[in-house]
Design a protein that fits this description.
This protein is α+β, with helices and mostly antiparallel strands. Helix content is about 35%, strand content about 40%.
Length: about 230
């Protein structure tokens, strides 16, 4: 038993000494594309003294607006409901909370690949008197983002090799084999608003807007570890 206690640290030291010298560098690649998806949030809202009536009113307006969206037959549409929420408003009167009314809200997020179609959604929301019309946001779909990332992978590792070669040339060393590669996509800003929420009258009267918001960019990085080749002097 004592023999193993003495030999084990010697083996560990020998293994560490056998590891080749290495250098780790980070390569980068940037790719851009025009956004191919857009979304907008639209909300119905009703207020009044009776909780049941304001809830019914919000749901009725929501259902009417959703039916109008369905009629637009937006391509690749994804509709997500926020459900219905009814809040009670109160006032402190001489230390007692008194109910002053209720507000009910029902919202719908509409996402599609048709940017002009989403503009028509905004116009339909204004026509129906929806209380909340959010900003239209443009973003890259998952398939497009993946395509851009895949196009970057050969470039990002090539960039890492070029950087490592330049780094070692200053000390007269050369690259050896690749030991490890780790890739990732750098965090990017979220979806880009095309225009902010507008008053209902302005949206209803506005012509269909130019939605050319410019390309969006992703950054792909790779951390590559190379062995440093032995000198043959």
């Amino acid at each position: 038993m004592m023999r193993w206690l003495l030999v084990t640290p010697l083996l560990a030291t020998a293994a560490a000494a056998a590891e080749p010298p290495s250098v780790t560098v980070q390569g980068t690649c940037t790719a851009s594309a025009q956004p191919d998806r857009a979304r907008i949030f639209v909300g119905a809202e009703a207020t009044g003294p009776d909780a049941s009536r304001v809830t019914t009113a919000a749901i009725t307006q929501y259902n009417r607006f959703r039916a109008e969206v369905d009629k637009l037959a937006l391509p690749d549409a994804a509709l997500t409901s926020t459900g219905v929420q009814t809040d009670r408003s109160t006032d402190d009167r001489n230390g007692h909370l008194v109910t002053t009314g209720y507000t009910a809200r029902a919202g719908l997020t509409v996402e599609t690949s048709s940017l002009p179609g989403l503009a028509r959604v905004m116009q339909a929301a204004a026509t129906d008197g929806m209380a909340n019309i959010g900003s239209m946001e443009l973003f890259l779909s998952d398939p497009l983002r993946q395509k851009l990332e895949l196009s970057c992978l050969p470039k990002v590792t090539a960039d890492a090799r070029e950087r490592a070669t330049a780094l070692l040339s200053g000390i007269g060393a050369a690259l050896g084999d690749v030991l490890t590669v780790n890739t990732g996509e750098a965090p990017m800003p979220g979806p880009r608003p095309v225009f902010a929420a507008m008053s209902m009258a302005r949206v209803a009267a506005a012509p269909e807007p130019d939605l050319s918001a410019g390309p969006q960019t992703i950054n792909v990085t790779a951390s590559v570890t190379f062995a440093i080749a032995a000198s043959h002097k």
